[in-house]
Amino acid sequence: MRIAHVVWGMETGGVETMLVNIINEQVRTEKVALFIINDFVEETIINKISSKCLIKKINRKPGTKDYYKIAKLNFHLLLFRPDIIHVHSYQVSTLLKGKWRIVRTIHNTHNKTDEYPKMDALYAISNAVKDYTAKQGFTNVTVVDNGIDVNSFITKKNSTPKDGVYHIVQVGRLFSSQKGQDILLNALGILANKRGITNFIMHFIGTGKSEDDLRVLTSELRISDYVVFEGFKDQDFIKSNLCKYDVFIQPSRYEGFGLTVAEAMAAKVPVLVSDIEGPMEIIAYGKYGMHFKNADTENLADELETVLKGGYDYNMIEPAYEYVKNYYDVSITAKRYIEEYKKVINR
Q1: What is this structure's pTM?
Q2: Angle at 134 (CA atoms; ends 99, 342), nearest 5 degrees
Q3: Helix 259-266 vs helix 317-327: angle between axes, to the nearest 10 degrees?
Q4: Residue 118: Cβ within 10 Å count
């Protein structure tokens, strides 16, 4: 089978990480190509893709009507002759000319739906995304759970920190309106300023357009001594170092899946997530991790206080690891996609 993945760009984020993992599995048995439309390319991400995958960078400037670049994209697609084209974001399909079998993965809730009827198949990365999409009027959606390379993560050996200082980590784009880093900072401010609890260092791994605002908020809350903005770290760093942190927090306001939650569980790190959509599905609604009320800073502070006072149930860690390994390993995800592609091709 000849599979073409088409994306706007390849920067840092859950979709990109997932796609690299999927491609590296699919090239074991299939012919795979990646077409990157815009000039948003993070080379450290690209370098993780198997050399067996054909990569074509179209280098269009975002938002421009560059007909030459659109023609270039379609020319290279014709040369590759895909049996299936897999798109991963909104309006990518509008640039594809010709009669192709096009499928799309819905990576999040709150998506626009106008192009859904044009797809030969729709896939959701979680039951949460499928349910949300059904409420939008589209019920013929197949769940193909996101996947990670579980065995590539170094696992945490100790449970609680020896010195009593908890190193908390949040991994992802600094994009507060979705990812909720401001909620987390405000909760930490409550702990430090109102409750006198300061046995923590908060590490934000990632970059994004909210970074400046988050730095200002950190200063305003007088918690700069307890917060570190680590900047961008590649996937090799995450796989090797996530195990060194004492608790992982995902404070998102909405999230279709929560790839980094699964990664933390694969690294055997305790997790605390907002009680929304994808993350709750990953922790089996509290069976494999703690949770707090979405956007509720006081409740997040309460749950964090429990963790910082040694109240996390560490008996959840090993079952959480086994759960991720059995349900969210990328080998399972890649196999499911190929099975679904065949259904579309054989119609």
Answers
A1: 0.86
A2: 40
A3: 120
A4: 10
